[in-house]
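Input/output pair, single chain:
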Amino acid sequence: MIPPHVSWLHDTGERQVTACGREIEIWALEPKEDDEVLSAWATHFRQHYIDDDDLPAMVDGTGLSNAEYLRKILFPDGSKTPGPSLRSGDFGEILVADYIEYLLGYWSPRTLRYQDRWNRNDSTKGCDIIGFKFATEAPNDPNDELFIFESKSGMTKTDANRLQDAITDSIKDHLREAMTLNAIKQRMLVRGQQEEAGKVKRFQNEVARPFRRINGAAAILDDEVFVATDLTAASTAGHPNADHLRLIVVRGPSLMKLVHALYERAADEA
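Output:
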């Protein structure tokens, strides 16, 4: 089932071109004042950090309400550094994961990335977003795809080119890929998810089991940051998979306000 907030994300049809000739897709996130959709989005968001079925047991013994537990122990801090930047980063990653799963048709397991975080104000290491696509039911089809995306958020005024930052980080993914796949598989095995772990295993030995690798770099930008950023100055030079690198920018109004509102709703409605 596609979460209803995904309908608020759409391709504008606008394209820009980087300094090295690569196309940049411009997408828009256009939230509306719809309590039902926002509530469902907040639930979707919260469940990246904890399964609702596990919440009562985790809150038990803390002396906190569900909302207090989420705000004080699980969610990145809403005001103290680096909490707000981590919130915007998590939001961007989750939105990109929604994009590749619900709009591009990849399987993108991502809750493990947030549920196993020990420090709420420290980002999870490894590749940001991973998607898997199986071309056929045949095992180890060489047309199976591994999609690795790096995401950077720019929701407040900045001199940085966040798309370039995402591209630069994506260059490192060929070094982080093996460790990230291992971590995902390990967490799945601990949870008894043998079938899912087997799907990840398929992509751990490219020599023995060839597949297609696609990389992506995304910038999630507030409209004001988008207007002030020269996206065409970005370059993919030096990227080891530049010929199969997808570049997207998602722009939207008052994104940091939206991020904080989602966290607050996710806590209050738990």
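Residues 4-268 form one domain. The two ends are 21 Å apart (CA to CA).
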